Amino acid sequence: MKQDRGAWRSKLGFILAAAGSAVGLGNLWKFPYLTYKFGGGEHGHGAGGFVIIYLMAVLLLGLPVMIAEVMIGRRGRLNPVGSFRALRPGTAWKYAGLLGVITGFLILSYYAVVAGWTIEYIAKSVTWEYADYDAHVSDQAVRDRVFSELSVAPAGALFLKEHGLIRDTADASAVQAAWARVKTDKKYANLLKQAKKEFFLAFKTRFRTQRALKHAIIEKKMEIYPASLFERFLKNPVKQVGYFFLFMLLTMLVVIGGVSGGIERWNKVLMPLLLLMLFTLVGRVFTLDGGVRAMRFLFYPDFSRVTFNTVLWAVGQAFFSLSLGMGALLTYGSYLPKDAKISKASLAIVSLDTLVALAAAFVIFGSIFTFGLTMHGSGIGNLFTAVPGIFLHMPGGRFLSILFYSLVAFAALTSTVSLMEVAAAYLIDEHDMSRKRAVLIAGAAIFLLGVPSALSFNLLANARIFHLTFFGLVDFFSANIALPLGGILIAIFVGWVLTAREKHEEVFEFPVWLYSVWDFLVRFVAPAAILVLLFALLTGRVSG
Ligand code: TRP
């Protein structure tokens, strides 16, 4: 049924679809979440170390490997397995393609769970639950919040010193360690109670009138509310599985529609709209108090925080965000005409993807620093907890919020579609299935695989493997191990197996010097960098 394969209507179609694949939750959800995590969380100094390594990984590994991956697809003109086979028949290279197909299953199985969250947040924007936060947050929650704020402020250090728990109020790590003890050790239960009381009293005396105090409490509730809404949502297994199912259905519908009909058309309109929306928000955040702090948080490097682990996650994220290392862009490349310039298209995709990631992180941190939001412990929800704060303080916020989460959902959809397309193309080409049958089978399998991920925040929250939830494990394995491994194989194949003539035909647009630079990166730099990381991983130097 080879006629079921598609083709792009135009060169722009490829760029748009590949950009649609690349730009997704990796940029809007995962990049901000990882910068938060590697920047030291709420009280961290800066994520610059992670961000700079990420940018280097994108430029030195991501861009050259992207060109290599698209090249394999355009020469092979098939799905990942078929393309490797077509280029070097009778060798084991086809298994590199198979690894990609499997990785795609894994990624989609948890990615669509997060994608499902966007649907809930479209609904939350429609009903605009944020407006009556006052009624939903208890006074106790405000007290706890005041406590957690003051305990890390000078007042907290002073309190510890007065009670003989630290000597030097300027020693931040001693303060941190002391509070950790006070909060967990039963011995200090009374002290903890006393601290909470004192801190709330200190908070209250800051306000001269009853009205000012009431206002301040309401403001605190507004900070707390989005996070508590999100947490409640995560704890609801029915919603988690339900939205996940819904998003899988949507993805399957689009993929059944076929390459040019389903994917290409919508991309042209909604991708620019997403950019417009994002840059409106960037502009808005620049006028908020937290804008400057967000810049500093994102780019100020705290190299004391950088470890092998940071590098592994940064490289994994580069592959993940660019949709590299599992054959998604290879498959899209297989629909690309011979005269299209792979390098230019790749550069455009990489630039756009990076820009969107940075913009999203800036918006989210700007909001966090402006409104003093509490985030879900790991930061995993900050796309959903931080952004509503901005809309609450904007004219037309409710409408913009609906639009924003719809666009996020769409960006996620163009990514899930690309992941599903790999599985579909594989089944269509290699197992002679119709498109519909291929999608139904792949979709059902991915859904089953993803159910434990959807339950990882509720029913299965305590089922840990290597300290990770099922969701965390699949994410860690697929993004940080399988994608870099796929990337190595692609780099080695193009760098060492394809002949110079074959390569020259694909990147005919390269002047000699640029070809040499690219070839060097693909042959030596990419495999070496990724091998070092995999080695670090196998010797236990890194973790989830
Ligand atoms: N790059 C997408 C994002 O950032 C996710 C994605 C789509 C992906 N297709 C992929 C990741 C293929 C790895 C491989 O949201």
Please give a handful of descriptors for the protein shown:
mainly alpha; binds tryptophan; Amino acid/polyamine transporter I; 544 residues; globular
CATH fold field value = Amino acid/polyamine transporter I
Number of E strands: 0
Helix % is: over 70%
Average pLDDT score: 89
* The number of domains: 1
Q: Per CATH, which architecture? A: Up-down Bundle
Measured by DSSP, the beta-strand proportion falls in: under 5%
Please trace the helix and strand order, writing H or E for each element.
HHHHHHHHHHHHHHHHHHHHHHHH
| Oligomeric composition of the shown chains | single chain
Structural class: mainly alpha
Computed CA radius of gyration, to the nearest angstrom: 25 Å
Largest sheet: none
Instruction: Provide the CATH top-level class.
Output: Mainly Alpha
Q: Helix tally?
A: 24
Terminal-residue CA separation: 43 Å
Unreliably modeled segments:
none
Hetero groups: tryptophan
Please describe what this structure looks like.
By secondary structure, the protein is an all-alpha fold. The chain has one domain: Amino acid/polyamine transporter I (Up-down Bundle), CATH 1.20.1740. Helices cover 76% and strands 0% of the residues. The radius of gyration is 25 Å and the shape is globular. The site of tryptophan has 16 residues, from helix 1, helix 2, helix 15 and helix 20.
